[in-house]
Amino acid sequence: MRALNPLHVVEIGSLRGCSTAHLATALTVNGSGRLTAIDLAPGTFDLYPKHLEGVLTAIQGDVLDWLAGQEDDSIDMLFEDSSHGTYMCA
Questions:
Q1: What is the pLDDT of residue 7?
Q2: pLDDT digit string (tens) for 19-44?
């Protein structure tokens, strides 16, 4: 994350927010970039540290629906941390 310096990172499955906080912190240290964290679970986004709100957009919803609405090449890095099953990874 630090070496690649991506501008738009998407995390699929952020649940408790541990990896989300690490990703957002790396972007903050880089001095650029935004993180979009997507999860189905309600209440997930109440756990994120408030000081990361400047780089973090939290979305509660279906990631496949959200991804379908994104333009090609609009995501520099995708971190898949949800189901890990064949369907989701594909």
A1: 96
A2: 899 999 999 999 999 999 998 887 76
d(CA 54, CA 83): 27
- Written as six digits, the tokens of 16 are 């408790």
Long-range CB contact pairs, 41-48, < 8 A, 24+: 41/15, 44/14, 44/15, 44/16, 44/17, 45/14, 45/17, 47/16, 47/17, 48/17, 48/20, 48/21, 48/24
Q: pTM here? A: 0.87
Q: Residue 79: which of 46, 37, 45 has the closest Cα?
A: 37
Following DSSP, what letter does each residue of 20-68 receive, concatenated? HHHHHHHHHHHT--EEEEEESSTTGGGGS-GGGTTTEEEEES-HHHHHH
